[in-house]
Design a protein that fits this description.
The complex is a heterodimer of chains A (about 120) and B (about 550). Chain A is α/β, with parallel strands linked by helices and about 120 residues long. In chain A, about 40% of the residues lie in helices and about 30% in strands. In chain A, helix 2 links the parallel strand 3 and strand 4. With about 550 residues, chain B is of the alpha+beta class. Chain B folds into 3 domains: about 120 residues, Beta-Lactamase; about 220 residues, PPM-type phosphatase domain (Phosphatase 2c, domain 1), CATH 3.60.40.10; about 170 residues, Heat Shock Protein 90 (2-Layer Sandwich). The termini of chain B are far apart. The chains are: A alpha/beta (about 120), B alpha+beta (about 550). At the A-B interface, helix 2 and helix 3 of A face helix 11, helix 12, helix 13 and helix 14 of B.
C-alpha cells in the first residue's frame, strides 16, 4: 500500500494563519509540513493553527515533526495551536506532553475564540 | 606306519580368510618323543604349488626347491610327504620320518599312503570347516555378549524421565545401532531451577565407548552442579577425563543451560554437531560455539554463547547418526537437509517424529542403522508467558483457564516487506485479523498505533529496510488477551526492557538540545498493557499484549 501523501493549505487571517492538513503525518510529510509552516509564518502571523480534522494517521516520526514545528514557533515567539484531532491523537498528544506546549481545541471556532488569539 | 609323523602343522592355503589359520593334526601319540616341532608353511612358499601339482607321496630328500618349509621338513627328519588335497586346495600334509627298519618306503607303502591321503583329505577339510565354524560361533557369542553389556550400560545411564517444565516441552529419543555406539544425553537439574541439557557422542563402539560414556556422564553431572557456567563445566570435565581416556578416543559433547523462566540458554560445545534453533518466525540458526572434543588434550578453553528461546521457538540437539545416515545410493542425509527440515517444522507436530519420518523416507525400508541415533528437542510453548500474565492480572475463571496456554489461537501470521510506509500495511492487516474480537474503538486505535510503531522499528532498526528481510507478525488471541508478536532480523541489538524505556524529555527537544525523534517505544508502551522484548543472536521480537477483559491498564497509564 503506497503511503498517502500529506496535503496542506494555508489560510491567512489577521495575525493568524490556519494550516489545513489532509492525509498522514509521517516521514513522507516532512517537506509538505515544513513548507506549509513557512508559508504560515510568511505574513507575520502571531498564531498558527494546525487543523488536524482531516488527518487520519500520525506516527512517532509525525510527532517528531510537530515537535520540530513547535520548537520553531517558540524560537520565533509564535503560538502554535491544534484542533480537529481525533480522541486517539488527543490521547497521544497528552501522553507525549505536547498539550503542555500546544493548546488543543476541538474545532476551529473554539481555537479562534481562544482569548489569547482574539486579543 | 610306525614312523608316521605325529603332528603336522601347516599354514593352509586357499582363501584369504583362512590364510592365517593353523591346523593341527594329531595322530596316535605312542611315539610322542619323536614328534617334530609344529611347522608353518607360508601361503607363498613354492612348495605349496609343488604339492598341488604333484599329488602323491614325495621323497623329501630328493626335492630341491628354494623353500623354507622344505628345509624345515628336512631338518625335522621328514622323509616322505603326502599332500592332503581336497577340491584343489592343500589342506594338510602327511609327513613320515624314516622307517624303523631303515628300509626305504616300498611301492606298496606309497600306494597305501596315497590311498590314505585321498580318503582322509576330505575328512580333514570337514574337520577344519567345523573348527572354523565353532571359532566363528564363539566370536559371535563374544560380540553379542559385549553388545548386551554395552546396551545395558546405555540403558541404565540414559535418563528414565523427561524434565517436566511448565511452558516447555522437552523430548528425547535414542535408538542404538546394532553395534552400539557411544551416544548419550542427560538432563541435569540445578538447585536454582535451571536445567542442564547434555548430548554427546563417544568415539568407538561397544563396551569401551559405553564405559567412557558412563565416565563422562558422571563427571559432567558432578562438575555441572558446582561450576554452573557451561564453558567452564566442559573445561573442567576435559581436565578430569583426558587423564584416563584411552588413546585415539574422545568425546564430543554439547552442554546447554536453560533458564525456564526467561528462556535464556547458555551453551558451550566440545566439538559436537551444532544444534538447530528454529525461531518462531521459521528461520533456523545454528547454536555455534567453538571447542575441542573432550579428552584429546588438557588445557582446552570452551567458548560460551547465549541465546534466548522466544515463545514458539524450538531447538533440536542431535547426533551424527542422523546426518551421516546413507540411502541405498550411498548418498548421505547431511546437515542441509536436516536444517531445512527443522525450518519446515510446524508446531502442531512432533519435531522428533518429523525427523524420524524424513530419515526413514531418505534411507528406505531396508536400511540397517549405521550408528546410534539420538535427539533431544526443546520447545517453548506458544504464549505461555502471555497467558500467565493475562490470568494473573485478570483473575477471572476464564483467565485461569488460559493459564495452561492451550487456548491461544493464531488469528494471523503476516509477512511485511521492510519498506518505508509499510507499517500501514501491518496496521491494517492486524486490524482485519482482530476484527472478530470487537475491540472498543479506543482500544483498536491504541493497538493500531502500537503495531505501526513496533513494525517501523523492526523495519528500520532491525532490518535496515533491506528488501530480503521482511518483518514477521503473528497475531494470537485467548479468551483473556490479545498478543501481537513483531519479529525482525536484528537479533543482536539491545533494546531496553519495558520498564527501562525512558520518558522523552520534550523540553530538551523543544529547546533543540535533543533530536525531536525518539517517541516510538514510549508510545508503544503506553498503548498496550504489556510489552515484552526478546533478543536472540538472529532475531528481535516485540510482543504487544492487550487484555481483552478486566481492567483497562493502558488507560490507567495514560
Amino acid at each position: 500500500m503506497p503511503a498517502k501523501s500529506l496535503e496542506a493549505q494555508v489560510r491567512h487571517r489577521p495575525q493568524v494563519a490556519i494550516v489545513d492538513l489532509q492525509g498522514e503525518i509521517d516521514s513522507f510529510a516532512e517537506d509538505v509540513l515544513n513548507a506549509a509552516y513557512a508559508e504560515a509564518e510568511s505574513r507575520d502571523a502571531n498564531v498558527i493553527l494546525l487543523n488536524f480534522s482531516k488527518v487520519d494517521y500520525i506516527n512517532s516520526t509525525g510527532i517528531a515533526l510537530i515537535v520540530g514545528l513547535l520548537a520553531r514557533a517558540r524560537k520565533s515567539k509564535r503560538r502554535l495551536l491544534a484542533y480537529g484531532l481525533s480522541d486517539h491523537y488527543v490521547e497521544i498528544f497528552q501522553i507525549t506532553r505536547l498539550v503542555d506546549f500546544m493548546s488543543v481545541f476541538p474545532d476551529e471556532a473554539s481555537a479562534l475564540a481562544d482569548g489569547s488569539i482574539v486579543s | 606306519m610306525a614312523t608316521l609323523m605325529q603332528r603336522l602343522r601347516m599354514m593352509r592355503v586357499g582363501s584369504s580368510k583362512r590364510e592365517s589359520q593353523m591346523i593341527q593334526i594329531r595322530e596316535a601319540d605312542h611315539s610322542r618323543q619323536m614328534m617334530p616341532p609344529p611347522m608353518d608353511i607360508a601361503p607363498n612358499d613354492p612348495i605349496v604349488a609343488y604339492f598341488l601339482s604333484a599329488p602323491g607321496a614325495i621323497e623329501v630328500d630328493k626335492l630341491h626347491l628354494d623353500s623354507p618349509a622344505l628345509q624345515a621338513m628336512k631338518n625335522a627328519g621328514v622323509k616322505l610327504a603326502i599332500p592332503l588335497v581336497s577340491q584343489g586346495e592343500l589342506v594338510g600334509l602327511l609327513n613320515l620320518g624314516p622307517r624303523l627298519s631303515e628300509q626305504d618306503y616300498s611301492t606298496d607303502d606309497r600306494g597305501l599312503l596315497n590311498t590314505l591321503a585321498t580318503q582322509s583329505a576330505p575328512a580333514v577339510r570337514v574337520a577344519q570347516l567345523v573348527q572354523d565354524q565353532q571359532a566363528q560361533a564363539r566370536e559371535n557369542e563374544r560380540i553379542q555378549h559385549e553388545l548386551r553389556v554395552a546396551q545395558l550400560i546405555q540403558k541404565t545411564l540414559l535418563p528414565k524421565d523427561l524434565p517436566a517444565l511448565p511452558g516447555w516441552n522437552v523430548n528425547a529419543y535414542y535408538q542404538a545401532a546394532r553395534q552400539v555406539g557411544g551416544d548419550f544425553y542427560d538432563f541435569i537439574y540445578l538447585d536454582d531451577g535451571r536445567l542442564g541439557l547434555v548430548i554427546g557422542d563417544v568415539t568407538d563402539k561397544g563396551v569401551p565407548a559405553a564405559l567412557l560414556m558412563a565416565t563422562t556422564r558422571s563427571v559432567l553431572r558432578a562438575v555441572a552442579q558446582r561450576v554452573i557456567a557451561p564453558g567452564q563445566v566442559l573445561e573442567r570435565v576435559n581436565e578430569i577425563i583426558h587423564q584416563d581416556i584411552p588413546p585415539k578416543m574422545f568425546v564430543t559433547c554439547m552442554y546447554a543451560l536453560l533458564n525456564p523462566e526467561s528462556g535464556q540458554l547458555q551453551y558451550a560445545n566440545a566439538g559436537h554437531d551444532l544444534p538447530y534453533h528454529r525461531h518462531q518466525t521459521g528461520e533456523v540458526t545454528e547454536l555455534r560455539a567453538t571447542g575441542m572434543p573432550l579428552g584429546l588434550m588438557p588445557g582446552m578453553i570452551y567458548e560460551e554463547k547465549e541465546t534466548r528461546l522466544a515463545h514458539g521457538d524450538s531447538i533440536l540437539f542431535y547426533s551424527d547418526g542422523i546426518v551421516e545416515a546413507h540411502n541405498p545410493d550411498r548418498g548421505m542425509y547431511g546437515f542441509p537437509r536436516l536444517m531445512r527440515l527443522v525450518g519446515e517444522y510446524e508446531r502442531d507436530t512432533s519435531l522428533k517424529e518429523l525427523v524420524l519420518e524424513d530419515l526413514a523416507e531418505f534411507t528406505g525400508s531396508d536400511w540397517e542403522q549405521e550408528d546410534d541415533i539420538t535427539m533431544v528437542t526443546l520447545q517453548r510453548s506458544e504464549g505461555y508467558g502471555v497467558s500467565e500474565i493475562a490470568s494473573r492480572s485478570i483473575g477471572t475463571a476464564e483467565g485461569a483457564n488460559s493459564s495452561n496456554g492451550t487456548d491461544w489461537q493464531t488469528l494471523a501470521e503476516l509477512i511485511v516487506p521492510s519498506k518505508p510506509g509499510n507499517e500501514r500495511i501491518a496496521m491494517e492487516q492486524v486490524t482485519e485479523a482482530v476484527s472478530g474480537l470487537n475491540l472498543p474503538g479506543r482500544r483498536l486505535d491504541q493497538l493500531k498505533t502500537a503495531v505501526a510503531e513496533a513494525t517501523m522499528n523492526a523495519m528500520e532498526h532491525g532490518n535496515h529496510y533491506l528488501p530480503d528481510r521482511p518483518v514477521s507478525i503473528k497475531v494470537l488471541a485467548s479468551r483473556a488477551a490479545l498478543s501481537v508478536r513483531i519479529t525482525d532480523h536484528g537479533g543482536t541489538r539491545i533494546l531496553p526492557s519495558d520498564t527501562g524505556i525512558e520518558v522523552p524529555d520534550i523540553e530538551a527537544k523543544l529547546a533543540e538540545l535533543q533530536t525531536p525523534r525518539g517517541w516510538g517505544l514510549f508510545l508503544i508502551k503506553h498503548m498496550v498493557d504489556e510489552m515484552n522484548i526478546s533478543n536472540d543472536p538472529s532475531h528481535h521480537t516485540v510482543e504487544l499484549i492487550m487484555y481483552l477483559e478486566g481492567e483497562d491498564h493502558a488507560s490507567e497509564k495514560s
